[in-house]
Amino acid sequence: MEQLTQLLTQLAEKLGTTSEYLWEVLLKQAQLALVTNSLFLLMLIIILVKCILAIKSLMKEWGEDFDKELLLTILFALTFTFTGLIIVMIQDVLTLSINPEYWVLTEILDRIS
Predict the structure, then answer these.
(1) Minimal CA–CA distance to 29: which of 105, 109, 112, 110?
(2) How many CB atoms lie within 10 A of CB 87?
(3) What is the C-alpha to C-alpha distance for residues 81 and 76, in angstroms, rounded to an integer?
(4) Beta carbons of 100 and 27 less than 8 angstroms apart
(5) Cα–Cα distance between 12 and 64 in angstroms, integer?
(6) What is the DSSP letter of 12?
(7) Residue 65: phi, psi to the nearest 5?
């Protein structure tokens, strides 16, 4: 933690500001990231619901007709992919809303490593 404080102080000095001000700016950035990630999560959920409804509709419409199996496979793959993205995004949104300081720390550590 001491190394992180030193790095934050050095970065603040290079930017001509204080580490306290830099920390506040990073926390505001966390709020922005929360909003954008929440919107992205909402978009993913809408797409997932549309994919599930499309699969359900096509399965009902086609019945035992397997000629269109490729399209159904693509829809299943999209559904699987979007579900995975939603799971990842939920973790980000929860971290940003409950503990933005942790998000800031991980962002700093990611940038310096």
Answers:
(1) 105
(2) 10
(3) 9
(4) yes
(5) 65
(6) H
(7) -80, 110
Q: What token pair was written down for 65?
A: 């007709």
The position carrying tokens 């409950």 is 98
Torsion angles phi and psi, residue 53, rounded to 5: -65, -40
pTM assigned to the model: 0.73
The model's pLDDT over 65-104, given as tens digits with 9 standing for 90+, comes to: 656 777 778 888 988 998 999 999 999 899 999 999 888 8
* Residue-level pLDDT at 19: 81
Q: What is the pLDDT of residue 33?
A: 92
Interatomic CA distance for residues 98 and 100, integer angstroms: 6
CA 38 to CA 2: how far, in whole Å? 32
Structure-block tokens of residue 59? 């399965």
The pLDDT-based confidence of 32 (bands split at 50, 70, 90) is: very high
List Cβ neighbours of 107 (8 Å cut-off, separation of 6 or more).
26, 29
